Amino acid sequence: MAMASPLPTKLLTLEDTHGAALAEYFYYPNAELLYVRWHGQLTGAEVIRGVQNGGRWRNQLTYSLILNDKSDTGGDWSDALPWLQYEWLPLALAAGVKAMAYLFSPDRENLFASHQFVAALRPYMAIEQFEDVHAALAWLQAQGGGTQPKGPLLVPQ
Q: Distance between CA atoms of 57 and 121, rounded to whole angstroms?
């Protein structure tokens, strides 16, 4: 029996229109976990593009857990909220997503959209807010999914 790895596989770094990293996608296959680490000043259009890119693995990879890390972001992306709630959420639920850990941005502008997003998802899946990536990964591991590695999942560099 193969040991479950605590390290993720990097799937993609999506760039913004200026060539800077917008979102990095990592996959922990044994934990069935997709980790999306966002960067920079986010707009609604960029969030939608980033989520659509993450969704392209829905048919190829099994993941029931998502770590949505906006700790390195700023900006107002609240205009993406209706799309996330009415377009993305039904697809994610149908694909088997059952829990999301959400790492907040320290940016005040970003907080309103983040709180609205969490409130919209709470009736449909387990979702918790975190300030620490290790605590978020540990909470997701406790939600189950896959053959969990023994010990903590490791954060990609």
A: 21
